[in-house]
Amino acid sequence: MGAAGGSNKLRQSAETDSRWRQTDTVRSDSVQSQQINTYRAYAADAHQYSCDQGEDMKIMVVGGGGREHAIIRSLKKNPEITEIYALPGNGGMTGDAVTVDIGAKDIGAQVRFAQGNGIDYAVIAQDDPLALGAVDALREVGIPAFGPDAKAAEIESSKVFSKNLMKKYGIPTAQYEIFEDAGEALEYVKTCRIPIVVKADGLALGKGVTVAMTRAEAENAVRFAMEDRVFGASGERIVIEEYLEGPEVSVLSFTDGKTLVPMVSSMDHKRAKDGDLGPNTGGMGTVAPNPYYTEEIAQECMDRIFMPTVEAMNAEGRPFKGCLYFGLMLTKDGPKVIEYNCRFGDPETQVVLPLLKSDLFTIMKATTEGTLDRTEVVFSDGAACCVVMASEGYPVAYEKGYEISMDDDVRELVYVAGARYDDGVLSTSGGRVLGVTAVAQDLRSAVAGAYENVKKVSFGNAYFRKDIGARALKALEG
Ligand code: ATP
Questions:
Q1: Structural domain of 82
Q2: Do the domain assignments include residue 249?
Q3: How far is it, in rounded angstroms, from Cα 112 to Cα 140?
Q4: What is the CATH number for 195?
Q5: Is residue 47 pLDDT above 70, yes or no?
């Protein structure tokens, strides 16, 4: 099976109206030119950067997990960037970024920090600050930021919005009903086809979705969300949707609201245990590219899902700029959207960005400035694998505070998600502790390499799946 690897062959633009482009460029130029004029010429620091001269850029990245660590590592390759701040970041980023104790949801403090520290560009990597309007707030004070504004971020923060968007614009997705009343939802569950999927409308840390294999499970899921209010306001409304079957594919893309460039595809492993058993987690590992995602399917997705989504958001007056993530299911009736995310996925980013050959910062700026059609976005033809090392017991109950050690030769291949750094000691502080990656010419070597690298990292109570990539390798064998 020939997977669609690097994405350059697939690049499409919604641009048909020159007025659109011009307005956009003028607006972003006026923000950018003030910024650019203030940058000092910079003689590159010999220890990290190879360029002789660049510009002294200060970047802030909002978020604190493995995804943000991978973004920071990628940004660091740009010789113009001299300082990166992570808000709040985590202890494992020491050496890559300055961590700042400001929470990802504290938009006011983020804006004050950016203004007070001469931040030239912000990357909002996490969903909540995007939904809360971090990009809007920074833009208001003249600081450009990567990511959608709050109106466009609703494509992730409200499943009711995204399902209605897909229905209105004919984008393939599971059939669904929306409920605001628990009684009505429970009545519907009595007669609907089983299995069925129950989804809380709002953000719920990836826990708001129940794939119910029995009617009782579906009823419990409705009660959990609407009566017990386990997800707070996120469960005020729910979506009950048709159960779909087929391989899942994640496709992240860059878009400036006109042009969309898909990144290399990937495959997540959400369940805690080998064989895709156990509870759902934030993700236990990823591989890229996803062997199910052939060139043919990629083209179909571009024509029927990706560009229609960009156009639909424009038509709704919510142009999307940043990273638009498509969670897809390849059903027997063709690819369908399971979910949109308005930002990079975690841990997909940890396999996708290591395969990016072009400069991430240049691409990010192009999404903000509306110049993606003129920007190089090239991925390597290779493959990558990330194995997440978690604390035993995750996602239910687990101990933390164990010292983490790793060999020097894997340090740059480890993206830390849940760790503290105190008095020179790195120790575990979360469920998903870190992701160990490998990049290779082919998927088999990448998977083997990642597991070799896992042997070079240790901490007390470590747990990881032993079968990351196994399903993808089986699919490759046909
Ligand atoms: P995430 O943690 O990815 O943000 P989420 O809470 O937004 O998750 P979804 O991605 O919508 O939830 O669903 C989570 C998982 O549930 C999917 O990856 C998929 O495996 C399964 N799922 C969701 N919708 C369906 C469906 N209609 N049919 C079958 N399985 C589904």
A1: 24-150
A2: no
A3: 12
A4: 3.30.1490.20
A5: no
Provide CB contacts within 8 A for 56, sequence distance 6+.
Answer: 39, 40, 41, 42, 80, 82
Read off the pLDDT of each residue in 243-263 and give the average, rounded to a whole number: 98
Mutate to test the pocket of ligand 1, among 158, 197, 209 (most ligand atoms within 8 A of CB): 209
Per-residue pLDDT band at 6 (split at 50, 70, 90):
very low
Which of 211, 242, 273 is the last residue in one of the domains? Answer: 242
Burial of residue 242 (number of CB atoms within 10 Å: 0-12, 13-18, 19+)? middle
Q: Over the stretch 99-113, which tens digit does the pLDDT of each residue have?
A: 999 999 999 999 999
How many angstroms does the Cα of residue 354 sit away from the middle of ligand 1?
25
Q: Among the atoms of ligand 1, which is closest to the Cα of residue 156?
A: 7
Contacts 24+ apart (CB under 8 A), 149-154: 149/318, 149/321, 151/317, 151/318, 152/313, 152/318, 152/319, 152/320, 152/321, 152/322, 152/342, 153/127, 153/342, 154/318
Cis peptide before 144 (omega within 30 of 0): no
In this predicted structure, what is the pLDDT of residue 205? 78
Is the same domain home to 136 and 194?
A: no
80-106 pLDDT, tens per residue? 999 999 999 999 999 999 999 999 999
Supply the residue whose CA is at minimum distance from atom 10 of ligand 1: 339
The ligand 1 atom at the shortest distance from the C-alpha of residue 268 is 18
Residues with CB under 6 A from ligand 1: 174, 197, 199, 206, 208-209, 211, 241-244, 248, 270, 327, 338-339
> What is the rounded CA–CA span in Å between residue 154 and residue 143?
22
Domain annotation covers residue 467? no
Atom of ligand 1 nearest to the CA of 207: 6
pLDDT digits (tens, 9 = 90+) for 208-252: 899 999 999 999 999 999 999 989 999 999 999 999 999 999 999
Q: Where do we find the tokens 């973004």?
A: 71
Does pTM top 0.85 for this prediction? yes
CB 158 within 8 A of CB 175: no
97 within some domain: yes
Number of domains in the chain: 2
**What mean pLDDT is reported for the chain?**
89
- Please name the residues in contact with 106: beta carbons below 8 A apart, sequence gap of 6 or more: none
Residue 36 within any structural domain of the chain: yes
